[in-house]
Amino acid sequence: MKGSFFAVAQEIGALVEAKNRAYGSSFAKSGDFLRLLYPAGLRPDQYDDALLQVRIFDKQMRIATDRDAFGESPYRDMAGYGILGATMRATKGANSSDHSAGAAMSETGVQQAREREVSQVLQRRVPRGRPARTKTKRNAGDVSELRSKSSASTRTPGKTKGA
Questions:
Q1: How far apart are CA 103 and CA 91, in angstroms?
Q2: Packing angle between helix 107-124 and helix 74-94, nearest 10 degrees?
Q3: pLDDT tens digit string along 57-91?
Q4: What is the pTM of this model?
Q5: 8 A C-beta contact, residue 106 and residue 91
Q6: pLDDT digits over 91-103, tens only?
C-alpha cells in the first residue's frame, strides 16, 4: 500500500511540474492578481466573482505561455466560466435571498435558463416548407413539454400530482 501512495504522489508531482513549465505558475501569481483587482480587499458577496476571475486568470496564463499544451482548450474553459458567471448573475437577480454560486447552479436555476434558451431558439427557427405559424404552434407544445419534464424531475419521490 505504501508504494502505491508514493507512486501516485510522484505521478501528480511530475504532472504539476510539466504544467508549470508549459503554462507558468498562475497559482503563485493569483494572490497578486486579486490584490490588483480588489485593493481594498474582498467582501463576502464578491467571493463567487473572485473565484471565477481567478479561474479565468489561470486560463489566460495558459494562453499567454503555451495555449495548446496537453491538448486542452483554455478558450473553451473560459467560455465555460463565462456561462457559469452569467448563470450565477441571472440567478442572483431572480432570487435575491441566496447569492451563492451553489444557488446559481441549482437544478432550478439551470432548468429555467435552459427553458428560456430553448424557447428563444424555437421562436427563431422556421423549418423549410412549413409556414412560421405551424412552427409557432409546435413551439408552445415543445416549451410546455419542457416545463412538464422540469416539474416532473423536481417532484418529491412517492408523491403524485394532485396528491
A1: 7
A2: 100
A3: 989 988 988 888 888 889 999 999 999 999 988 88
A4: 0.51
A5: yes
A6: 876 655 554 555 5
